[in-house]
Amino acid sequence: MDAAAEISQESGFTGESGAARIQERLQKRHQERIDDAERRKEAKESRSVAEEKGDYFFGTFNKERESIEDILSSCSGADRAVLTQKLEEATAKLLQLQKFLSDSTMFLKPYDLRQAQAALQKLQTSLTETREEGLPKKKFAFRTRTKAKDKSSAPEADTSPDAVTPAESGTSEVDGSAASVQCGISNMDNQCLTKTAEEIQKQDVLLSHLTNCKVHLFGAPSTLHLKHIDSCEILCGPVSSSVFIDQCKNSTLAFPCQQLRTHNTTDTQVYLHVTSRAIIEDCRGVSFAPFSWSYPTLEEDFAVSGLDQNLNNWSQVDDFNWLAAGTPSPNWTVIPEGDRRTSWDP
Amino acid sequence: MGLLTILKKMKQKEREMRLLMLGLDNAGKTTILKKFNGEDVSTISPTLGFNIKTLEHRGFKLNIWDVGGQKSLRSYWRNYFESTDGLVWVVDSADRLRLEDCRQELSSLLQEEMLAGATLLVFANKQDLPGALSKEAIKEALALDQIKSHHWCIIGCSAVTGENLLAGVDWLLEDIAARIFTTD
């Protein structure tokens, strides 16, 4: 625009004789423009990094992709251990490649990005296929395992609040402790059953499908689960964490615990020592009184469980089906003092 | 520069993540949260509602939401889904009788559209109990191998001893970071 205006101006004033000069000036401007563009191009190139180029990205990406494909194709016919190792390697590489791609999204063109994602997707599919072919899934089933005899070697609960064990402590150790059968009693009618401290100490105990039974658990288990209990009397020593009750009716229960969770339970009396809170959900006719059962080694078991014997919130029950503040829940009551059991002898 | 890029850049500046911790009742969600934060775990009551903790870890600001797992609270879980970066699913590894419940609840969560982009960490908790199932058994019981929609990982841990809690959270952070914070 400026140039055009200048030209018309100059030609207006100087006429024919200025034509050569105009030519010259135009030439000069043109040269300046080219130089300027050149400079800018150079500056731009010096700023951009080699790694942030589509070419570099695709070079690396394809190399990695081929190496994963190689691993996968070498999988057929390999034995299980080798195969597992190879698949793991491929999975790790694939993850790395995915990360590389997501790191590169800032400078990739949308089309290239889509292409790379499609390639990754394809790799993922073929990895899954190879895995399913080589290592078919086992059906899940509970295994009966021999009971670990050496209970003292069970990991001591480290209750210091600041100690979050670092990752290096390893998964194998965690998995190793699973090699024991669950402790408990199931499917009994009209029985008197007893478990001793040696049997349940630090164990997770499950009582299920019991009818008309009297159960005495002497000792301090880690947790206690009661499920499908009908017309039973169940007495248990101090439970160091939670007691979980589901589908229980017409029964009498007594235990100390850290927390109590009661579900789908009707017409049941609980003689309770609880150091945090008891809750009920979908229950009717549940009544509470302070724990009053006693046996010779109760004090020691309290010490093993770590429960505070002087802290008992037995009467503070939260009902998940009754959240109205002020009015008490109709689903549970406190057993009047005169009606509480005082004698527990069989 | 698309909208997504702008959003990514904004998130990157804050380095903030929102983690949602869910699971059946009695799984140990609150205990994991408190143990991870270095608090006393012996006074924890069943969660009537939810807990939220904001803590700094590895240069990230984590907003961890721990929502009660009782049956009557599960219908409220969806209120917490929005903008969740990571889902922590906590399993009581010793509670064999409710594993099927656990599988169903998890699989219905994974179909939620609002959680579609979230990374899934499964904590096979209570490994300190002698009767606990291994993380492999939990993986099979929950059919984790069939999950194709989310990045996932299962880690055996114990909230009481603190074992492997760090390893799990670190994996989760790394996976989320790779997804939402692009490096400059």
Automatic annotation (TrEMBL), chain A:
Domain named C-CAP/cofactor C-like: residues: 166-322
MF GO annotations: tubulin binding
Domain of life from the UniProt record: Eukaryota
Biased composition (Basic and acidic residues): 32-50
GO BP, one annotated term: post-chaperonin tubulin folding pathway
Subcellular location per the Swiss-Prot or TrEMBL entry: Cytoplasm
GO cellular component, one term: cytosol
Cytoplasm among keywords: yes
InterPro entries registered for this protein in UniProt: C-CAP_CF_C-like, CAP/MinC_C, CARP_motif, TBCC, TBCC_N, TBCC_N_sf, Tubulin-bd_cofactor_C_dom
Basic residues biased stretches: 137-146
Keywords: Acetylation, Chaperone, Cytoplasm, Phosphoprotein
Annotated segments matching region Disordered: 1-50, 130-174
Family label: Belongs to the TBCC family.
Subunit structure and binding partners: Supercomplex made of cofactors A to E. Cofactors A and D function by capturing and stabilizing tubulin in a quasi-native conformation. Cofactor E binds to the cofactor D-tubulin complex; interaction with cofactor C then causes the release of tubulin polypeptides that are committed to the native state.
Role: Tubulin-folding protein; involved in the final step of the tubulin folding pathway.
Protein name, per record: Tubulin-specific chaperone C
Taxonomic lineage of the native organism: Eukaryota, Metazoa, Chordata, Craniata, Vertebrata
Automatic annotation (TrEMBL), chain B:
Pfam families: Arf
Binding-site residues for Mg(2+), renumbered to this chain: T30, T47
Keyword line: GTP-binding, Lipoprotein, Magnesium, Metal-binding, Myristate, Nucleotide-binding
Keyword Phosphoprotein: no
Annotated localization: Cytoplasm, Cytoskeleton, Microtubule organizing center, Centrosome
Transmembrane parts of this sequence: none
Binding-site residues for GTP, renumbered to this chain: G23, L24, D25, N26, A27, G28, K29, T30, G69, N125, K126, Q127, D128
Gene Ontology molecular functions: GTP binding; GTPase activity; metal ion binding
Main location: cytoplasm
InterPro entries: Arl2, ARL2/3, P-loop_NTPase, Small_GTP-bd, Small_GTPase_ARF/SAR
Gene3D superfamilies, alphabetized: P-loop containing nucleotide triphosphate hydrolases
GO cellular component, one term: centrosome
Sequence similarity: Belongs to the small GTPase superfamily. Arf family.
Protein name as catalogued: ADP-ribosylation factor-like protein 2
Origin species: Xyrichtys novacula
Lineage, top ranks: Eukaryota, Metazoa, Chordata, Craniata, Vertebrata
